[in-house]
């Protein structure tokens, strides 16, 4: 029974050292396994096309990132479980990113950066946080962490999810229209699934109050980029901070690169820390070997 790591070799070396210390009897290979039939656990970003034939005894596939949308879940053998990355640095970094982006849009930073470049000194009016209604799409690990980080600022907070949720100090919605109608600053932290692909589209922007702002740190394919540009041009959306795009990076001449009301970051909201990532995988394998529930095991039908 072995573990195979198929992602960045330098990070793989960190995983290998952690496995040697915590599970010394479990062989851990980086890059390739001497006996593919012995591979029971695979740690990777992408799944090889011939996964089932190459690793016939595979039991769990671990994503090295927080999402699992890079896998074609329908194409994986039905008996293989898929586990997302859960490590404490991910929600912590997302709290930092969402706070940075929310405050940047709340305090009109894109406009002031433009003014600075143009040599213009002109103060706008600060809106009190109590008058900026923030709404988070996705109330999972990251949505809840983001809301907790934003709470001290005094924004009226809301969230939207599939299941009804109760979170102290947060108005929780399952009705998307009602959620959007009260949201001046929208934060997308949804997983990419068949249901959420393209969800940030013209119809959605039209249902926000005029002049709403967008923070997008979910996945690029959730955003209709042309619809966002139209909404920015019409003033329906006043500004956006985007950490994810499709493709990544955008083509060199894409208008979002230089848009005066858009701040673009290169998918850096969160980066898995290999030491903590290894601890998550080790704990999950220990749980699996003990016949206990595996933290981060996703529902393959639901897609997250
Ligand atoms: P979780 O699985 O913990 O939470 C997902 C949330 O989204 C749940 O609240 C779920 O609803 C909700 N949701 C899913 N589908 C729908 C839908 N169709 N309609 C309404 N709500 C829906 O995921 P995480 O919070 O850990 O991560 C979310 C995503 O963030 C990741 O999948 C990844 O794509 C992205 N991400 C981006 C990073 C970056 O660097 N930019 C870094 C890390 C993650 P319910 O509660 O009802 O199940």
From TrEMBL:
GO annotations of cellular component type: cytosol
Gene3D superfamilies for this protein: NAD(P)-binding Rossmann-like Domain
Transmembrane intervals: none
Keywords: Oxidoreductase, Pyruvate
InterPro entries referenced in this protein's UniProt entry, alphabetically: D-isomer_2-hydroxyacid_DH, D-isomer_DH_NAD-bd, NAD(P)-bd_dom_sf
Domain called D-isomer specific 2-hydroxyacid dehydrogenase NAD-binding: residue spans: 102-269
GO molecular function, one term: glyoxylate reductase (NADPH) activity
Protein name per the record: Glyoxylate/hydroxypyruvate reductase A
């Amino acid at each position: 029974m072995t573990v195979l790591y198929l992602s960045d070799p330098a990070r793989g070396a960190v995983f290998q050292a952690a496995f040697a210390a915590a599970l010394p009897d479990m062989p851990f290979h980086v890059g390739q396994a001497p006996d593919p039939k012995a591979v029971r656990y695979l740690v990777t970003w992408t799944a090889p096309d011939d996964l089932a034939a190459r690793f016939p005894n595979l039991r769990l596939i671990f994503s090295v990132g927080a999402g699992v949308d890079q896998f074609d879940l329908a194409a994986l053998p039905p008996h293989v479980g898929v586990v997302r990355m859960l490590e404490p640095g991910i929600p912590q970094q997302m709290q930092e990113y969402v706070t940075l982006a929310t405050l940047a849009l709340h305090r009109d930073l894109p406009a002031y950066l433009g003014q600075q470049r143009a040599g213009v000194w002109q103060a706008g009016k600060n809106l009190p946080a109590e008058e900026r209604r923030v709404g988070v799409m996705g109330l999972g690990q990251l949505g809840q962490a983001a809301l907790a980080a934003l709470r001290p600022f005094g924004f009226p907070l809301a969230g939207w999810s599939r299941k009804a949720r109760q979170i102290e100090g947060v108005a929780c919605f399952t009705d998307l229209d009602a959620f959007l109608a009260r949201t001046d600053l929208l934060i997308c932290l949804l997983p990419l699934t068949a249901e959420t692909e393209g969800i940030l589209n013209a119809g959605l922007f039209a249902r926000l109050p005029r002049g709403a702002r967008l923070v997008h740190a979910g996945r690029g394919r959730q955003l209709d980029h042309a619809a966002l540009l139209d909404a920015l041009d019409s003033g329906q959306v006043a500004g956006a901070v985007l950490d994810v795009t499709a493709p990544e990076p955008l083509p060199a001449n894409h208008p979002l690169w230089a848009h005066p009301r858009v701040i673009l970051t290169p998918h850096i909201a969160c980066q898995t820390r290999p030491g903590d990532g290894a601890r998550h995988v080790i704990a999950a394998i220990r749980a699996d070997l003990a016949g206990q529930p595996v933290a981060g095991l996703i529902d393959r039908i639901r897609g997250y």
